[in-house]
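Today's session is about reading a structure prediction critically. Students often jump straight to the picture, but the first step is always the sequence itself: look for stretches that repeat, for charged clusters, for runs of hydrophobic residues. Only then move on to the predicted structure, which in these notes is written as discrete structure tokens rather than atom positions. Here is the chain we will use throughout the hour.
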Amino acid sequence: MVAFADLSLSFITSLSGLTARDTSSGSLDAACTTGTVQVRSTVCEQIAAAVSSSSKVYYAGSSQYTEDNYHWSASSNQPSECSFEPATTEDVGIALQILGQTQTPFGVKSGGHATNAGFSSTPGIEIALYSFSEIVYNSTTQTATLGMGLIWDDVYVALEPYGMTVVGPKITGIGIGGITLGGGYSYLTNQYGLGIDSVVAYELVMPNGTVAVITDSTDSDLFFALRVSFQQSDHVNSLNLLRYFKGGFNNFGIVTTVTVNTYPQSQVWGGLVSYSMNEWAAVSSAIANYAATVTDPKASMYNAYNYIAGVPIMANILFYDAPTPPEGIFDEFLAIPAIVSLVSTRSYVELVQSLPLNATAGLRTVFSSVAMEDVTVPVMDMIVNETTFWSEKLASSSAGIVTYGVDVFLPTIYDHGTSPTAYPPSRSQGYSFIELFYGWTESKYDSTIFDAVSASGQYMIDSLTAAGQNIADVAVYPNHAPPNTSLESMYGANVPRLQSIKSSVDPDNVMGLAGGWKF
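Below is the predicted structure for this chain, in token form.
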């Protein structure tokens, strides 16, 4: 969703002379030069002395410290006492033991795309997983083992010579953790399910410092709980269409590598198409027709209605998992006059990397989402009205970006899992989603924005329910859950089981020292 705000912001800037936000203002660099975190923590020094020479501790003033603490969203930035880049699982375990013994707050980051304050940032010790960057493809099992310090671009490129790919994000710059523990909705989800459905094993550093490989056969409870768990994972680019490593939210330990199934990948067809507001009604009709008639699992479509600095623009990505789509699937979209059309046949890597912009980085941000059973013209009209209403209402609250996305999926997307997962708590039916994203600049408006995204979400749930859609109790997607979302609304009847697993795995509550929702 943010990807389209990025793309639209860049495009509008080039047309209108609008100035894109200077993301250096309020940056972590500024925070780190205030002198508030210059004193070297004894815990930082204790970790540095205890771990191997291949692992590093960094302090304010170094460029690596700044990178380790950087988050795409300004609302998630905070300076830590130091950052720690472990190079081995043993060193991760040593650090966890020290943090537990000293009761020191910490954060875990493999990229930094969390929006909720404190979920992967900390005033204590920031653990950055960049050193876990291996990619090992096994042609016999057709699996790939991936380090949590990678971004998915690296994986797509590494697997391309084998003619294989993975269920990963739709755009460039996203980290491994979010998809493999947080859900993972992809261009390939209609064919293969969520990103977590492709996982076959996790390498997990337990809260007591021991290392274990977790599979459905070695520990079915923990394998269930890790999907979804949290360890914020998107890399420095801000392009978030999908979901990231959230859910259990730092409850069960730190995952360092993950092994996933891979799938054959040919050239694909698709790309970005942008429309002016004059065409919104026509595109809304095309989306409704697409949702009602297209059942080909190789097809995917995502649309975003955006107001960028008060300027309306629509961005749409069309995708088909073959060099050419069958006639009729996307014809209606292509017949509508477009401002920009970048649709072509190309490699999967090239399509993903065709959306590399990062214009929303540095804003304060919040996500939310609402499930849909049916995507109809009246529903699309409601979404357009919400986009316009909240763009106008929040303009005085420094909200420069208001985006409402429409992500259309088949109702069979949850049929691909082979074992239970913490999210979604029910797999009886798949849904399409309305995805909300607000970006603003001034922290004094945080509560105003949070109230607005909550009010809009509830209004749309009430409207859809009144129209006969049975979505009021659909689980909230954890990666798009705004602050103060309840565990029950995300995990439903799974909460007691997750609480029991948490107590068993982490009886001393070491992971309670990290941020996020807690079991």
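Discussion point for the tutorial: The longest helix spans residues 446-466.
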